[in-house]
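C-alpha coordinates as discussed.
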Protein backbone atom coordinates (compact mmCIF):
# COMPACT_ATOMS: atom_id res chain seq x y z
CA UNK A 1 0.00 0.00 0.00
CA UNK A 2 2.89 2.38 0.74
CA UNK A 3 4.25 1.98 -2.79
CA UNK A 4 0.81 2.76 -4.21
CA UNK A 5 0.54 5.90 -2.06
CA UNK A 6 4.04 6.98 -3.09
CA UNK A 7 3.38 6.43 -6.79
CA UNK A 8 0.19 8.47 -6.67
CA UNK A 9 1.57 11.24 -4.41
CA UNK A 10 4.59 11.77 -6.63
CA UNK A 11 2.58 12.10 -9.84
CA UNK A 12 2.24 15.66 -11.13
CA UNK A 13 -1.35 16.91 -11.03
CA UNK A 14 -2.41 20.41 -10.02
CA UNK A 15 -6.08 21.36 -10.58
CA UNK A 16 -6.95 21.25 -14.28
CA UNK A 17 -3.82 19.18 -15.08
CA UNK A 18 -4.83 15.82 -13.63
CA UNK A 19 -4.14 13.78 -16.79
CA UNK A 20 -0.99 12.09 -15.49
CA UNK A 21 -2.75 11.01 -12.30
CA UNK A 22 -5.68 9.69 -14.34
CA UNK A 23 -3.28 7.75 -16.59
CA UNK A 24 -1.52 6.26 -13.57
CA UNK A 25 -4.80 5.11 -12.02
CA UNK A 26 -6.03 3.76 -15.37
CA UNK A 27 -2.85 1.68 -15.58
CA UNK A 28 -3.47 0.29 -12.09
CA UNK A 29 -7.16 -0.54 -12.59
CA UNK A 30 -7.21 -1.72 -16.20
CA UNK A 31 -8.83 -5.16 -16.29
CA UNK A 32 -9.78 -4.94 -12.60
CA UNK A 33 -13.07 -3.06 -13.14
CA UNK A 34 -15.78 -3.47 -15.79
CA UNK A 35 -15.46 -0.07 -17.39
CA UNK A 36 -13.12 2.93 -17.33
CA UNK A 37 -14.15 6.23 -18.88
CA UNK A 38 -13.50 9.95 -18.62
CA UNK A 39 -15.81 12.92 -19.06
CA UNK A 40 -15.37 16.46 -20.38
CA UNK A 41 -14.12 17.71 -17.00
CA UNK A 42 -11.39 15.06 -16.99
CA UNK A 43 -12.95 12.97 -14.21
CA UNK A 44 -11.87 9.33 -14.33
CA UNK A 45 -14.83 7.01 -13.74
CA UNK A 46 -14.15 3.33 -13.03
CA UNK A 47 -17.25 1.15 -12.78
CA UNK A 48 -17.78 -2.21 -11.12
CA UNK A 49 -21.11 -3.23 -12.61
CA UNK A 50 -23.97 -4.50 -10.48
CA UNK A 51 -27.76 -4.72 -10.30
CA UNK A 52 -28.21 -3.06 -6.88
CA UNK A 53 -27.74 0.50 -5.72
CA UNK A 54 -25.47 2.88 -7.57
CA UNK A 55 -22.81 4.13 -5.18
CA UNK A 56 -20.22 6.80 -5.93
CA UNK A 57 -16.95 6.74 -4.03
CA UNK A 58 -15.12 9.93 -4.95
CA UNK A 59 -11.55 11.05 -4.37
CA UNK A 60 -9.98 14.06 -6.05
CA UNK A 61 -6.92 13.70 -8.23
CA UNK A 62 -5.85 17.34 -8.19
CA UNK A 63 -3.31 18.79 -5.76
CA UNK A 64 -2.73 22.41 -4.82
CA UNK A 65 -0.14 24.35 -6.76
CA UNK A 66 0.81 27.69 -8.24
CA UNK A 67 0.25 29.25 -11.68
CA UNK A 68 2.64 31.68 -13.34
CA UNK A 69 0.97 35.04 -13.94
CA UNK A 70 3.92 37.22 -15.04
CA UNK A 71 7.63 36.94 -15.79
CA UNK A 72 9.73 40.03 -15.05
CA UNK A 73 12.80 41.43 -16.89
CA UNK A 74 15.19 39.69 -14.51
CA UNK A 75 13.51 36.32 -14.99
CA UNK A 76 11.63 36.13 -11.69
CA UNK A 77 8.15 34.59 -11.88
CA UNK A 78 5.10 36.13 -10.28
CA UNK A 79 2.34 33.68 -9.49
CA UNK A 80 -1.14 33.05 -8.21
CA UNK A 81 -2.49 30.17 -6.17
CA UNK A 82 -4.24 27.07 -7.49
CA UNK A 83 -6.22 26.06 -4.43
CA UNK A 84 -5.68 27.27 -0.87
CA UNK A 85 -2.09 28.39 -0.32
CA UNK A 86 -1.18 30.11 2.96
CA UNK A 87 1.71 32.50 2.03
CA UNK A 88 3.66 31.90 5.22
CA UNK A 89 4.00 28.14 4.83
CA UNK A 90 5.09 28.21 1.19
CA UNK A 91 8.01 30.53 1.86
CA UNK A 92 11.30 28.90 0.96
CA UNK A 93 9.58 25.89 -0.58
CA UNK A 94 10.64 24.35 -3.85
CA UNK A 95 8.11 23.93 -6.63
CA UNK A 96 8.43 21.86 -9.78
CA UNK A 97 6.80 22.40 -13.18
CA UNK A 98 5.59 19.57 -15.39
CA UNK A 99 8.78 19.78 -17.50
CA UNK A 100 10.95 19.34 -14.40
CA UNK A 101 11.94 22.99 -13.95
CA UNK A 102 12.41 23.69 -10.24
CA UNK A 103 11.92 27.06 -8.55
CA UNK A 104 12.24 28.49 -5.04
CA UNK A 105 9.49 30.65 -3.53
CA UNK A 106 10.62 33.85 -1.79
CA UNK A 107 9.23 37.28 -0.96
CA UNK A 108 10.04 40.99 -1.30
CA UNK A 109 11.98 41.45 1.92
CA UNK A 110 12.23 45.25 1.75
CA UNK A 111 8.54 46.07 1.98
CA UNK A 112 6.96 43.23 3.85
CA UNK A 113 6.72 42.00 7.33
CA UNK A 114 7.03 38.31 6.59
CA UNK A 115 3.98 37.52 8.71
CA UNK A 116 1.76 39.77 6.61
CA UNK A 117 3.17 38.91 3.23
CA UNK A 118 0.74 38.24 0.40
CA UNK A 119 1.19 36.15 -2.73
CA UNK A 120 1.44 39.36 -4.82
CA UNK A 121 4.60 40.23 -2.91
CA UNK A 122 6.16 36.85 -3.50
CA UNK A 123 8.06 35.44 -6.47
CA UNK A 124 9.66 32.28 -7.77
CA UNK A 125 13.34 32.09 -8.69
CA UNK A 126 14.10 29.41 -11.31
CA UNK A 127 17.72 30.48 -11.65
CA UNK A 128 17.08 32.43 -14.86
CA UNK A 129 19.03 35.65 -15.37
CA UNK A 130 16.57 37.31 -17.77
CA UNK A 131 13.00 37.05 -19.02
CA UNK A 132 14.25 35.41 -22.21
CA UNK A 133 16.09 32.74 -20.24
CA UNK A 134 13.09 32.16 -18.00
CA UNK A 135 10.75 31.85 -20.97
CA UNK A 136 12.82 28.99 -22.34
CA UNK A 137 11.75 27.01 -19.28
CA UNK A 138 8.37 28.36 -18.22
CA UNK A 139 5.43 30.24 -19.79
CA UNK A 140 2.66 32.35 -18.29
CA UNK A 141 -0.12 29.93 -17.34
CA UNK A 142 2.18 27.05 -16.48
CA UNK A 143 1.49 25.37 -13.15
CA UNK A 144 3.86 23.94 -10.59
CA UNK A 145 3.44 21.81 -7.45
CA UNK A 146 5.43 21.36 -4.26
CA UNK A 147 8.57 19.25 -4.24
CA UNK A 148 8.45 16.80 -1.35
CA UNK A 149 9.33 13.12 -1.07
CA UNK A 150 7.07 10.38 0.27
CA UNK A 151 8.34 8.45 3.26
CA UNK A 152 7.00 6.09 5.92
CA UNK A 153 8.27 6.53 9.44
CA UNK A 154 6.99 5.06 12.68
CA UNK A 155 3.74 4.00 11.01
CA UNK A 156 3.09 7.44 9.61
CA UNK A 157 3.39 8.73 6.08
CA UNK A 158 4.89 12.11 5.29
CA UNK A 159 4.44 13.42 1.77
CA UNK A 160 3.33 16.18 -0.51
CA UNK A 161 -0.17 15.83 -2.03
CA UNK A 162 -1.64 13.36 0.46
CA UNK A 163 -4.64 15.66 -0.06
CA UNK A 164 -6.03 13.77 -1.86
CA UNK A 165 -3.83 11.11 -3.38
CA UNK A 166 -4.36 9.23 -0.12
CA UNK A 167 -8.06 9.09 -1.05
CA UNK A 168 -7.14 7.96 -4.57
CA UNK A 169 -4.87 5.24 -3.13
CA UNK A 170 -7.65 4.02 -0.83
CA UNK A 171 -10.08 3.73 -3.76
CA UNK A 172 -7.53 1.97 -5.98
CA UNK A 173 -6.77 -0.49 -3.17
CA UNK A 174 -10.49 -1.09 -2.62
CA UNK A 175 -11.16 -1.61 -6.34
CA UNK A 176 -8.28 -4.09 -6.52
CA UNK A 177 -9.78 -6.00 -3.55
CA UNK A 178 -13.13 -6.05 -5.41
CA UNK A 179 -15.57 -6.26 -2.47
CA UNK A 180 -18.37 -8.74 -3.21
CA UNK A 181 -21.69 -6.93 -3.63
CA UNK A 182 -24.59 -6.60 -6.08
CA UNK A 183 -24.33 -2.84 -5.85
CA UNK A 184 -22.87 -0.90 -8.75
CA UNK A 185 -19.74 0.86 -7.55
CA UNK A 186 -18.44 3.99 -9.23
CA UNK A 187 -14.86 4.74 -8.27
CA UNK A 188 -14.76 8.39 -9.31
CA UNK A 189 -11.42 10.17 -9.42
CA UNK A 190 -12.41 13.80 -9.69
CA UNK A 191 -10.77 16.94 -11.04
CA UNK A 192 -10.56 20.52 -9.78
CA UNK A 193 -11.67 19.89 -6.20
CA UNK A 194 -9.17 22.36 -4.78
CA UNK A 195 -10.57 25.23 -6.85
CA UNK A 196 -14.23 24.68 -5.95
CA UNK A 197 -15.34 21.02 -5.99
CA UNK A 198 -15.89 21.33 -9.74
CA UNK A 199 -15.25 17.93 -11.33
CA UNK A 200 -17.44 16.10 -8.83
CA UNK A 201 -20.40 18.20 -9.95
CA UNK A 202 -20.47 16.91 -13.51
CA UNK A 203 -19.43 13.39 -12.54
CA UNK A 204 -22.33 13.05 -10.10
CA UNK A 205 -24.81 14.47 -12.60
CA UNK A 206 -23.58 12.07 -15.26
CA UNK A 207 -23.99 9.05 -12.97
CA UNK A 208 -26.98 10.03 -10.78
CA UNK A 209 -26.16 7.56 -8.02
CA UNK A 210 -28.36 6.49 -5.11
CA UNK A 211 -25.69 7.67 -2.70
CA UNK A 212 -22.20 9.06 -2.62
CA UNK A 213 -19.15 9.33 -0.40
CA UNK A 214 -16.19 11.65 -0.68
CA UNK A 215 -12.92 10.14 0.52
CA UNK A 216 -10.59 12.96 1.49
CA UNK A 217 -8.40 14.35 4.24
CA UNK A 218 -9.64 16.20 7.33
CA UNK A 219 -8.07 18.23 10.10
CA UNK A 220 -7.22 16.84 13.51
CA UNK A 221 -7.10 18.21 17.03
CA UNK A 222 -4.08 16.45 18.50
CA UNK A 223 -1.23 18.86 17.81
CA UNK A 224 0.20 21.58 20.07
CA UNK A 225 -1.95 24.70 19.94
CA UNK A 226 -4.46 23.59 17.32
CA UNK A 227 -8.20 24.20 17.41
CA UNK A 228 -10.22 21.73 19.49
CA UNK A 229 -11.44 18.87 17.32
CA UNK A 230 -12.45 15.35 18.33
CA UNK A 231 -10.14 13.72 15.76
CA UNK A 232 -6.66 12.28 16.30
CA UNK A 233 -4.16 10.59 14.01
CA UNK A 234 -4.21 6.80 14.26
CA UNK A 235 -7.58 6.44 15.97
CA UNK A 236 -9.49 5.53 12.83
CA UNK A 237 -10.84 7.06 9.66
CA UNK A 238 -13.61 9.57 10.27
CA UNK A 239 -17.30 9.42 9.53
CA UNK A 240 -18.11 12.90 8.34
CA UNK A 241 -20.93 14.70 10.13
CA UNK A 242 -20.32 18.19 8.81
CA UNK A 243 -17.80 20.44 7.13
CA UNK A 244 -18.14 23.81 5.43
CA UNK A 245 -19.56 22.24 2.27
CA UNK A 246 -21.94 19.52 3.44
CA UNK A 247 -24.01 18.13 6.27
CA UNK A 248 -23.82 14.38 5.82
CA UNK A 249 -27.10 12.63 5.00
CA UNK A 250 -28.23 10.73 8.12
CA UNK A 251 -28.70 7.44 6.24
CA UNK A 252 -25.21 7.58 4.78
CA UNK A 253 -23.68 8.49 8.12
CA UNK A 254 -25.60 5.70 9.87
CA UNK A 255 -24.63 3.15 7.21
CA UNK A 256 -20.97 4.00 7.79
CA UNK A 257 -21.28 3.68 11.55
CA UNK A 258 -23.12 0.38 11.13
CA UNK A 259 -20.41 -0.96 8.82
CA UNK A 260 -17.66 0.10 11.24
CA UNK A 261 -19.45 -1.40 14.23
CA UNK A 262 -20.16 -4.68 12.45
CA UNK A 263 -16.52 -5.14 11.41
CA UNK A 264 -15.10 -3.65 14.65
CA UNK A 265 -13.25 -0.96 12.72
CA UNK A 266 -12.25 2.09 14.80
CA UNK A 267 -13.78 5.35 13.55
CA UNK A 268 -14.10 8.96 14.69
CA UNK A 269 -16.93 11.42 14.22
CA UNK A 270 -15.83 14.39 12.15
CA UNK A 271 -17.05 17.94 12.48
CA UNK A 272 -14.53 19.94 10.46
CA UNK A 273 -14.53 23.68 11.04
CA UNK A 274 -12.87 24.72 7.80
CA UNK A 275 -12.75 23.34 4.28
CA UNK A 276 -15.02 21.08 2.29
CA UNK A 277 -14.94 18.02 0.08
CA UNK A 278 -16.48 16.76 -3.15
CA UNK A 279 -19.55 15.71 -1.13
CA UNK A 280 -20.29 19.44 -0.99
CA UNK A 281 -21.13 19.57 -4.68
CA UNK A 282 -22.37 16.00 -5.10
CA UNK A 283 -25.17 16.25 -2.51
CA UNK A 284 -26.81 19.22 -4.26
CA UNK A 285 -26.53 17.77 -7.76
CA UNK A 286 -29.82 17.47 -9.71
CA UNK A 287 -32.63 16.67 -7.24
CA UNK A 288 -30.13 15.90 -4.48
CA UNK A 289 -28.00 12.86 -3.72
CA UNK A 290 -27.64 11.38 -0.21
CA UNK A 291 -23.97 11.99 0.51
CA UNK A 292 -21.39 11.74 3.22
CA UNK A 293 -17.71 11.27 3.68
CA UNK A 294 -14.91 9.22 5.10
CA UNK A 295 -11.77 11.17 5.88
CA UNK A 296 -8.21 10.47 6.87
CA UNK A 297 -7.03 12.63 9.79
CA UNK A 298 -4.16 14.69 8.38
CA UNK A 299 -1.61 17.12 9.77
CA UNK A 300 -0.21 20.09 7.84
CA UNK A 301 -2.89 20.00 5.13
CA UNK A 302 -1.79 21.98 2.04
CA UNK A 303 1.82 22.07 3.23
CA UNK A 304 4.61 20.43 1.20
CA UNK A 305 4.76 17.74 3.88
CA UNK A 306 1.41 16.39 5.00
CA UNK A 307 1.19 13.54 7.51
CA UNK A 308 -1.24 10.66 7.98
CA UNK A 309 -1.24 7.45 9.99
CA UNK A 310 -1.07 4.23 7.96
CA UNK A 311 -3.54 2.48 10.30
CA UNK A 312 -6.23 5.05 9.43
CA UNK A 313 -5.61 4.43 5.74
CA UNK A 314 -5.88 0.65 6.08
CA UNK A 315 -8.99 0.93 8.25
CA UNK A 316 -10.59 3.24 5.68
CA UNK A 317 -10.19 0.54 3.02
CA UNK A 318 -11.83 -2.00 5.37
CA UNK A 319 -14.65 0.39 6.26
CA UNK A 320 -15.46 1.14 2.63
CA UNK A 321 -15.32 -2.56 1.71
CA UNK A 322 -18.16 -3.15 4.18
CA UNK A 323 -20.04 0.08 3.42
CA UNK A 324 -20.45 -0.67 -0.30
CA UNK A 325 -22.47 -3.78 0.61
CA UNK A 326 -25.13 -1.55 2.24
CO1 LIG B 1 -7.24 20.25 -0.20
ZN1 LIG C 1 -8.82 17.34 -0.48
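Sequence:
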Amino acid sequence: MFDLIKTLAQTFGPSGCEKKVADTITGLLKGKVDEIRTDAMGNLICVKKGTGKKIILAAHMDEIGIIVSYIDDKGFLRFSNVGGLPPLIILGQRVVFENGTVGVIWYEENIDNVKNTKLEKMFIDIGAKSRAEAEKLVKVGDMAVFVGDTIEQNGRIISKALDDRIGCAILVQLALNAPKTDNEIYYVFTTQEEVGLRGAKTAAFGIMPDMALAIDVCDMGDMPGCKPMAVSLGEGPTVKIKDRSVIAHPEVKDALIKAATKKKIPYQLEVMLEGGTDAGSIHITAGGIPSGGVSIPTRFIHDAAEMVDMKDVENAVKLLAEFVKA
